[in-house]
Specification:
alpha+beta; 3 helices; 3 strands
Length: 93
């Protein structure tokens, strides 16, 4: 699921995103913005929501825009790609 969703967002093309259960954290994502790596933690108690992975992927996208794109022009370009990709996903349904 991660690979499928990640492929839909061009701003995440250089990212390594995995799921991992370290036994300590649940229901969140941990990102290393500089190295463009993210670990999605397991959901935790109860049934995982259908949109959980998408939710965490969107957090990574937003962080890529705000943390890694320091120059205004680059940030706006990344934001535009993100919005275009969201629109494409909405049209696919």
């Amino acid at each position: 699921m991660i690979e499928k969703l990640q492929a839909k967002f061009r701003i995440l093309k250089d990212w390594i995103i995995v799921r991992d259960n370290d036994g300590e954290y649940t229901g969140q994502v941990h990102c290393n913005w500089k190295e463009r790596k993210a670990v999605i933690c397991p959901w935790g108690a109860g049934e995982e929501p259908d949109d959980y992975i998408l939710h965490e992927i969107l957090h990574i996208c937003m962080g890529e825009i705000s943390y890694n794109q320091k120059l205004y022009k680059k940030r706006r370009e990344a934001e535009e790609l993100f919005v275009q990709d969201l629109c494409m996903m909405a049209c696919d349904d």
